[in-house]
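Predicting holo structure, N-(iminomethyl)-L-glutamic acid bound.
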Amino acid sequence: MDSVDLLITNASELLTLQGSKTPRIGSQMGKLSIIEGGSVAVSEGRIVAVGRRLRYRAETTIDATGKVVMPGFVDPHTHVVFAGSREQELALKLEGLSYMEILKRGFGIFSTVRATRKASPAELLKQSQKRLDTMLRYGTTTCEAKTGYGLEVKTEVKLLQVQRKLAKTHPMDLVSTFLGAHAVPQGMSAEEYVSLVIEEMLPNVRGLARFCDVFCEKDVFSVGQSRRILLAGKQLGLLPKIHADEIVDTGGAALAAEVGAVSADHLLRSSAEGLKAMARTGVVGVLLPGTPFCLMMQQYAAARKMIQLGVPVALATDLNPNCWTENMQFMVQLACLNMRLTPAEAVTAATFNAACAIGMQHIVGSLEPGKQADLLILDCPSYQFLPYHFGVNLVETVIKKGCVV
Ligand code: NIG
Ligand code: FE
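Done. Tokens:
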């Protein structure tokens, strides 16, 4: 009998998410490739086998009878590295101020920029580490992290260096995105700032980030300005991502398709044309239901329409000081209860499709031989409990690269 490091046995449901190697669309999103009574064998941090009766001698065996075993959540959109907090903005929101009105008064992103510029790398590291610890406890084993609270060369670089340190020292797999174009700094015109991003920031962050993102929005960066930034980033090897059509439909979804973005995120107001263009070009739609939730908005992204049109849908927390949650289980709950995804679609969106949104689908996002052993044991008998038993942490055990964390 071969021996392995770890054997997890007899899960009531083993969600393998085995299937196509490309982002799942349409009815594929509802297929989790479940093995009932399933086991997983792990060696040297990788999955060796999945199946019903696995014959291995194991150093450690975990009995998962009555429990769900699934891939770790992938959170493909976070702003996890920031300083300070914005709890006082709830009072403004309750008075009826919108997200953009709060920003225009010099709060919102600008408050966080002031705090983040002041914070030392050590302070940022400590605060972000704590958030990554929480994410891990709630089952996120891979995440993306954006910059965007510097809005000046030196702080943007500082944020990427903190991210690099986190990626090296924390068990979480962390992929970096440069979001220099997150807001127009006070006292500068958008055009002036776009030139600074393209001419000074991009050459300095090259090699430190995998993606380049832009907040393409009315009164922030126009489609034209966003295009220039994303294409300049692409020339330096940074793959495009975009905050698109969150508050106003400016044509962000269509721009994502045009520049070959890996993902377009938010998409609350996107037109059918924009979504169709994304479907044609395979741009992943990353939906962030925590944001409309904490802004007390009635409208969520049209997830059902996206799935019907063939847009691969993913879920993320958007973790930032406006929408502060580390919890992907809550995103699954909001996706089902407020966007009418089925539980199976939401699980695909929070694992395999989320991995596709950050180019990590070859390593994580499903439980298949050869892939990294990032998996969760849930204290419930079926994945359908994820949106059903809400507001608690259903994750009992987190296994990262084959080790219980
Ligand atoms: O994705 N909308 C732009 N950026 C972030 C929020 C950042 C913030 O408010 O600090 C988002 O929601
Ligand atoms: Fe965001």
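Residues 79, 108-109, 112, 215, 243, 246, 291, 318, 320-322 surround N-(iminomethyl)-L-glutamic acid (ligand 1) (CB under 6 Å).
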